[in-house]
Amino acid sequence: MKSFAVDELLNSKTEPYFKEVDGAIPPMGERDLCVQVKAISINPLDTKRRALDQVSQSAQVPRILGWDASGIVKSIGAKVSLFNVGDEVYYAGEITRQGSYAEFQVVDERIVGHKPKSLTFERSAALALTSITAWEGLFERLRIPSVSLSSELSSEQHHSAQKTILIIGGAGGVGSMAIQLAKKVARLNVIATASRPQSVEWCQMMGADHVIDHTLDLVAQVRAMGLKHVDHVFILNDTDQHFAASCELIAPQGLICSIVPNQNALNMDVLRAKSAGFVWEAMFVRSKDRTPDMIEQHHLLNEVSRLIDLGVLKNTTTKVYSPIDANHLRLAHLDLQSHRAIGKIVLEGFG
């Protein structure tokens, strides 16, 4: 099996290097699928894990990164019930197992979805991690009413039409999906943030009602729109920088959710006077800790596929490298590290 591992001799925080390695397909569990990987996409997590100063003793060596893939099921475990051999799938994988920079990957069926029928493998590879993160952040952590997983929009969603969400960092992968889900599924008034003309235009294409600049005073910009508070805040860019503004803008009894680790202590006392709350979204918790509701990621990925095929949601791929090799992985990581990437970067096909 061909795969691409971090080159520990050359790799650094700023300079990505990978090497081709040959190895056996990882052992399978009873509920595992072995997937022939057709395409992958790159996430900020990939660059962060690659840039670790030292590989912990518990880490697998060689380090095969990658937490987004689409492909074809080639074999199944003894207790698999959700998929058959030959099914086309997409998924984000597990943080504790070898990743998707490989020709074959083993993954638990409960965190895998059926690939959108209307999309190619390369387009589908861009969706899983960002869709899971955005969906869980909006509908589970922020408790925004959502469409059921088996029906069309209900009257309950229309009831929340006047509520407003501020999505900080709207042009990235998670932001691109969060804007769409907040607008199309939750029917919220969406304020997204972006700092360049290209990223502003992208947020508007995704469905944002308003776009403001996160390098400027967020509070002043929201207040200039005639809003004192917003009902929900989703932080996808620099929690430390935007926490104070989020606390000032959040409505009484509202919720703030972040996916970005903080470096400094956060002053939670600011939220106490509003009976407001702060929650984290970490999409690997279900698979890492084998939570009883782990299968919810399978259900939500299938729902995202349905919404894609109906034309409700748009694909977020903006750049494709081919084939999947050490050099193209290096270039994709450099693109993401520039902090100027919009949407998702995808690699397809093993040469």
What does this structure look like?
The chain has twelve helices and 15 strands. The protein folds into two domains: 2-127 and 315-348, Medium-chain alcohol dehydrogenases, catalytic domain (Quinone Oxidoreductase, Chain A, domain 1, Alpha-Beta Complex), CATH 3.90.180.10; 141-280, NAD(P)-binding Rossmann-like Domain (Rossmann fold). Helix 3 (128-141) packs across helix 5. By secondary structure, the protein is an alpha/beta fold.
What's the short story on this structure?
The chain is of the alpha/beta class and 351 residues long. It has helices spanning 44-50, 121-124, 128-141, 155-159, 173-185, 197-206, 218-224, 239-249, 269-272, 285-288, 296-309, 326-337, and strands at residues 2-6, 18-22, 32-42, 69-76, 88-91, 104-108, 112-114, 164-168, 189-193, 210-212, 230-235, 250-258, 277-280, 317-321, 344-348.
Please identify the oligomeric state.
Answer: single chain
Mean pLDDT equals 93
**Assigned CATH class of the largest domain:** Alpha Beta
Q: Kindly provide the radius of gyration, computed on alpha-carbon positions and rounded to a whole number of angstroms.
A: 20 Å
Number of domains: 2
Main sheet record: 7 strands, mixed
Runs in which pLDDT lies below 50 for 5 or more consecutive residues are: 148-161
Strand content: 15-25%
Tell me the overall shape.
globular
